[in-house]
Specification:
This protein has about 280 residues and is an alpha/beta fold. Helices cover about 25% and strands about 30% of the residues. The strands form 3 sheets. It has a 6-stranded mixed beta sheet, sandwiched between helices. The protein has a 4-stranded mixed beta sheet with strand order 4-3-6-5, covered by helices on one side. β3 and β4 form a beta hairpin.
Length: about 280
């Protein structure tokens, strides 16, 4: 059991009953931890989102989420990020509340955040009107400066899988990773939700003043949804890959903003849905 003054870890022990060859046995297993994270803005004292996530890199998750939603636009917009210090809140739960102190005088538009007051770790429901919202954020179609060979793309899933330390133990986490133009792994974040993992990844780049990611490749486990492409477009990512299928709206976002969208990346095969000109073939 986690003590009242300790943050929950990314793994939780639990009992499982294994049925194999008609026989049952029990053993302890590691489960992926899933707990709520409440993001509050200070000094407004306003909760802007509650998302189910895997504890870890919570400050990056909050920063990446706020950047993707247009609440902050540059590193200087965030003065400080901290966990809750309210003594009326149970000690363990304080690590499920993040306070983000904005730059003095910054008055953000919070209306776009209304759909996030409670979200699951799966991707939220988004309408096509969100394409217009991306244009209003200032997103522009990307030029095809970055080109890669299929051989580079082929290597990405194995690198991502090898670097997924928590997934190796639990088998229950998504991941998002950045690679350079030569296919070298640069950064990776894991979470129970695909979009949370990407928020953590983008948040890490945001807090390190490394945005935009216009010379990077992003690979996500699972499928590519609207939110994955929305966040990638805002972060300036020119190539987005996934090991599974994209949604129709994800393809629309990729086409609208000049992103190369790759799906079903498995072995030495993948599909290119948009932006084929960035892939150098024979």
């Amino acid at each position: 059991m986690v003590s009242k003054n300790r943050q929950a870890g990314s793994k939780t022990k639990g009992q499982v009953w294994v049925v194999e060859n008609g026989k049952m046995r029990s053993r302890l297993d590691h489960l992926t931890t899933e707990e709520p994270l409440e993001i509050r803005l200070a000094p407004l004292q306003k909760t802007v989102a509650v998302t189910m996530r895997t504890p870890g890199a919570d400050f990056e998750l909050a920063a990446g989420f706020l950047y993707a939603e247009g609440v902050v636009n540059r590193r200087e917009d965030i003065q400080r990020i901290s966990y809750c210090v309210d003594e009326s809140v149970d000690g363990e739960q304080r690590y499920n509340i993040v306070n983000v102190e904005l730059r003095h005088g910054l008055i953000p538009d919070l209306q776009p955040l209304e759909r996030h007051f409670y979200t699951s770790s799966a991707c939220g429901v988004c309408g096509k009107a969100s394409l217009e919202a991306l244009h209003l954020r200032g997103c522009r179609a990307m030029v095809a400066n970055l080109t890669v060979t299929p051989e580079i793309i082929y290597t990405l899933p194995d690198q991502l899988r090898a670097a997924q330390g928590i997934f190796t133990v639990t088998g229950g986490l998504h991941a998002a990773a950045t690679f350079d133009a030569q296919g070298q792994l640069l950064n990776l974040r894991e979470d129970v939700g695909r979009h949370n993992a990407l928020d953590k990844l983008i948040g890490s780049a945001f807090l390190s003043n490394e945005l935009p990611l216009n010379n990077h490749i992003v690979l996500v486990s699972g499928r590519s949804s609207f939110e994955i492409l929305q966040k990638s477009a805002i972060a300036g990512v020119p190539i987005v890959c996934s090991v599974s299928a994209p949604s129709s709206l994800a393809v629309s976002v990729a086409k609208e903003f000049g992103i190369t969208l790759i799906g079903f990346l498995r072995g030495e095969r993948f599909n290119v849905y948009t932006g084929w000109e960035r892939i150098k073939t024979m």
